[in-house]
Design goal:
two-stranded antiparallel sheet, 8 strands, six-stranded antiparallel beta sheet
Length: 116
């Protein structure tokens, strides 16, 4: 099955964040000496939290429908701001808050995935 691509009408606003988690295997010896190595090809994983402070209600509906269709487990493609296109899934939950009758605030945490 081909991966779907997340498209939104505009880039997320501020404060959107990106964190990089680095996995390291460490072998510690009795004299304080340690050896460190990366555990495999995908030792660095990105997490982003995208925030749209003001998103039109119809656009928020479309974004939420895309996420619901993925069910939280299906990966999708997305190019986060200042980054290349990567595979992502929702990291836990997203938040949608009505800021007026026409606009919502949408917060979307994503975690990079490395499956096939």
């Amino acid at each position: 099955m081909a991966l779907q691509t997340l498209t939104v009408p505009r880039s997320p606003g501020y404060p959107s964040t990106r964190d990089t988690e680095v996995a390291v295997d460490i072998a510690t010896f009795g004299d304080g000496y340690e050896q460190r190595s990366e555990p495999g090809l995908n030792a660095r994983r990105n997490r982003v939290t995208l925030v749209w402070p003001v998103l039109e209600k119809a656009s928020a509906d479309d974004l939420e429908a895309f996420l619901v269709a993925r069910g939280g487990s299906e990966a999708f493609l997305y190019a986060a701001p200042r980054d290349i296109e990567r595979k992502w899934r929702v990291d836990g939950k997203w938040t949608r808050e009505a800021v007026s009758g026409l606009y919502d605030k949408f917060t979307l945490p994503l975690i990079e995935v490395f499956d096939l």
